[in-house]
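Whiteboard transcription, Tuesday session. T.W. wrote the structure tokens on the left side:
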């Protein structure tokens, strides 16, 4: 493994910002640390960078223990959330900064900076200052500055946080392409699950200083190992009396609650012939709220006093608040204190065909 964290703890007084963190990252992978604000993901990143010191534990990069080394000795490039560009320096000089600190000859600096300006599509703005370029361009300058000294590991703290939604979408693809083209092992921090799923090869879900789960985006989304991961990843809705739904009546004393995602639920009109086979196993539902989400509608429905969120394609028949519908929950994640399991609706003998 290229990056390894072994039994890492970080304490502030009696508070654990990181607790028993163990993880391994393969060379060349693009990894996301995903978690809510205050979960400890940035603390882990900063400890790898050497900007924070672990209270206990060991950090290895390419087989070498580095937790006792200064940040400048670890071969790491760091891209800050705010980009931290020097506002009194031009784009060219910002990119060249790390090379000049290392006292690289000026002709080599010029060659390297010009190469990065071409790579990051910054031609024409190299003599401008940060306040004279767009947010997307500032991000590219920060990226170029971080990789200019050819680091063995690239760390990025919320790399898309400082740009608007449209630019953010474009930069996700751009950043992923750049990192793969360079072949550099990279770790980025984010609280945006869409960002992590779209960009990363591997996701490390962090909560309250602990690693909850490590896996590919599909593993994390489709196979959550803890209640927290099931709730945090996806548009998930926790419910406690799920055994009142048809098909789950026998689960009352087995699990303390469940998590339902919109794609697990079908809501339809009683006279819809497409779903006639589901009518005998459906619950009555009433639409309480309709929200337009651009490419689909989001319905909030009441099913036996249980509130469920459902996605509905724009092409389907119009619905209104107060409409009486039928609802079937195909499956859900049921959990107790120590485990979580995917349950299929027992009334649906051929779930896969229906879903």
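and on the right, the sequence the group agreed on:
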């Amino acid at each position: 493994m290229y990056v390894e964290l072994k039994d890492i703890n970080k304490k502030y007084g009696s508070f654990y910002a990181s607790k028993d963190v163990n993880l391994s990252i393969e060379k060349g992978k693009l990894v996301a640390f995903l978690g809510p604000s205050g979960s400890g993901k940035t603390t882990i990143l900063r400890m790898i960078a050497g900007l924070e010191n672990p209270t206990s534990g060991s950090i290895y990069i390419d087989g070498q223990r580095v937790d006792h080394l200064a940040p400048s000795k670890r071969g790491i490039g760091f891209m800050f959330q705010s980009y931290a560009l020097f506002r009194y320096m031009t784009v060219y000089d910002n990119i060249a900064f790390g090379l000049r600190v290392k006292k690289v000859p000026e002709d080599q600096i010029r060659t390297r900076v010009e190469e990065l300006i071409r790579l990051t599509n910054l031609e024409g703005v190299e003599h401008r200052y940060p306040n004279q370029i767009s947010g997307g361009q500032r991000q590219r300058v920060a990226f170029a500055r971080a990789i200019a000294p050819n680091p063995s590991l690239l760390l990025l703290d919320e790399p898309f946080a400082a740009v608007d939604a449209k630019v953010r979408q474009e930069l996700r693809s751009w950043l992923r392409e750049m990192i793969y083209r360079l072949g550099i092992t990279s770790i980025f921090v984010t609280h945006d699950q869409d960002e992590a799923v779209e960009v990363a090869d591997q996701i490390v879900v962090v909560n309250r200083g602990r690693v909850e789960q490590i896996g590919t985006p599909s593993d994390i989304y489709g196979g959550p190992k803890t209640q927290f991961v099931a709730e945090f990843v996806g548009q998930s809705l926790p419910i406690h009396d799920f055994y009142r739904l048809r098909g789950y009546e026998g689960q009352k004393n087995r699990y303390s609650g469940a998590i339902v995602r919109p794609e697990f639920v079908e809501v339809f009109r009683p006279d819809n012939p497409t779903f006639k086979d589901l009518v005998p196993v459906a619950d009555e539902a009433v639409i309480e709220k309709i929200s337009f989400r651009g490419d689909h509608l989001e319905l909030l429905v009441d099913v036996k006093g249980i509130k469920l969120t459902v996605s509905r394609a724009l092409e389907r028949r119009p619905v209104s608040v107060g409409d009486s519908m039928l609802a079937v929950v195909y499956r859900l994640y049921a959990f107790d204190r120590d485990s979580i399991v995917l349950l299929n609706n027992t009334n649906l003998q051929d779930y896969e065909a229906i879903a």
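Someone added at the bottom: The chain has two domains: 3-232, 237-354.
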